[in-house]
Amino acid sequence: MRIRLGTKDSTLAMLRAEALIEQLEERGHEVEIFRLPNVGDFESIGQLRLGLLRDDFDVVIHRINRLPEGKVPGTELAAVPVRGDRRDVFVGRDGMTISALPDGARVATATPLRRAKLTRLRPGIQYEDIKPNLAECLDRVAAGELDGVLCGAADVDYLERAEEITQRLETPPTAGQGALGYECRQDDKDIIEVLAEFDDPDTRICVAAERAVQESLDLSDQAVLGVRAHRQGVLSLRADVFPLDGSPVVSLTLGMPTSEFHAVRTGHRLAGLLRSRGVEEIGRDPKPQPAPPEKRRLSDVTEMRVLVAREEGRMSVGLRSAGLQVDAVPLQTRELLNVSSTLDGADWIVFTSTRAVASIRELGWTLPREARIAAVGPGTADALESMGYDVELVPEKAAGVNALLDVWPDGTGTVYVPGSALLAPSFLAKLQRKGYTTHLVPVYTMETLPSAPPEVAEAWHAGLYDAVIIASGSNALAVGELLGWNSDVPVVAVGESAQAVLRRAHVPVAKFSHSYRPQDVVGLLRELVAEG
Predict the structure, then answer these.
(1) Is the CB of residue 98 less than 8 Å from the CB of residue 44?
(2) Span 1-83+175-199: which CATH code?
């Protein structure tokens, strides 16, 4: 079977991918690897899941301790292989252990939990993040530039540098630490069957119990959770809650039968016991919840209150001009990437969004004079023209990548697309079928915010929105992650990427538009009102 494997293009991610590729090829499968730009752990999880739901590739690998809470509809964690060393480990300069660190020692670590543990063992530490990656931080320790690194044992093992470890911590780590998950689409039964060969029931059951504790607790940002499950006859589950103010650790242990069902129940029960000990109140004042209003009936599109889950732009302005009440609320932030590529040698330069235009402006790039410029719609073209560029190709009757492809001439030449690291590869593939050589130049990526604005979340869950506009696949994932899908709010999908991700996530789409023009979306909203 031919299997497409998507992975982040980082040292550790590639090592994990190569290990799986070797196992798959030993079983007679042909594996094609797709490398995604390395833009950070949580952002890469979104990229990988977006690629799965968009059918860019078939399988992705996750570190389970980095996975957000909850399941993404349309995906399946088909295998949880045998777990690596789950412990936190310390790599100290000149063989130092934690207790030997001098006052003011500089230690790199990545999580609040590890900082809380280390602070209790050795106060007075100066912390920094693990940047740019773990391997380089370990090199800095060896060179004497850092006093130590506190990280996961499994990652050090993947780098084949376990001999540098000077201390192993036995306290519970983050839920799922040391475990991997192989994820695919829920409806890809053949892929699920292949991946199931790698599943380890013991690891899956322990991970399920640990994550059940984590997902059941609602801790404030002033407390962190460590949890460890062990299966031997019965399931033993221990959880430690560390208050960041240095208050005593709250620690509980439970044992139960060993099926996955009972493991999750044990996790929920342990979380309930921790809750009764007041761990959810650490650093938090309780807030009363408002009563939800009754759902109103609309008679005209101008009565609608619509959520556009992105920054102010052509869509929100166009909807307001039609008389709608629009909340334009970005749930993602645009982050510039370190770019080593250039646009030299391009016959065409294509811009698929105003975000791409803003990114090249902020990077200080000047487009080659000899290159022809295309834009997916009038808004993107206006942004380019405001910078002094002539835009030669813009679709007139619609907006979006498909509209641009409809008017794109057959021919030859080199096309550069400075855009999002999340851009669907299908756009480039369709240009290639027209005879062109294509290059994606990732100049930015979209990162999901830590949380939605409280007033937006309250309005969403209270059913105060009459529709939500989803204009990209990553936009769909951000709404699902930060707000969850409200079955009382109709979803309007704009563009094939948004539609594909929503469909595979099993989110009902009330209306779909190929066009990104606001007037076309207004027409769909009128249909919603007419349908009641």
Answers:
(1) no
(2) 3.40.190.10
